[in-house]
Amino acid sequence: MCKGLVSLPACCLERAKELKARLGILLQKPIWTLSCCKIGKNKPTLEECLKWKESFEKLLSSRYGLCAFTAFLVSEFSEENIAFYFACEDYRRTKCPAKLLTKAQEIYSEFISSEAPREVNIDHETRDITEVNMQNPSPSCFDQAQHRIYMLMAKDCYPRFLHSPVYRDLLCQAKPSTKTTNLPQVVKKV
Prior knowledge:
Elements: H1 10-28, H2 46-51, H3 56-61, H4 63-75, H5 79-92, H6 97-112, H7 124-133, H8 143-162, H9 165-173
Helix pairs in contact: 4-5, 5-6, 5-8
């Protein structure tokens, strides 16, 4: 006879609870809406949206692009990648040496550890190098792991984003910029 959930190891039960919570959130809210990319009454122009196709860097450097890409990653259950990338950026800018250790431990336990709640997908060698770097945290101790995640997003997630309904909907709903150009005006003489 089936013993149900009781027979599962504790780590599996924790993972199941986490998945249930994540899926429950999806049932309550739409996966992605254009409104999440609106800041106040402003939204990205068509020109800005088209610039995102030029490079992954241009997408990330746009606040609307970053918002849309993050929403896309949430819909694909891989938002930990962008969260890790920006946690590393914040960590690198930390000036106070006393805060480096605390921040490094927080990033490691949230994203790198095999028990991490938002574990990023890095190879074993990169994980080992990062663990060694954690012995003496420096502003560059997550560089290799961050680079791996950046490349994963640039080569995998970014192309899928550009072909996604999220991006296509944003393009369709974006308006051309209202910047006026200095075109010669034709004056009718009566």
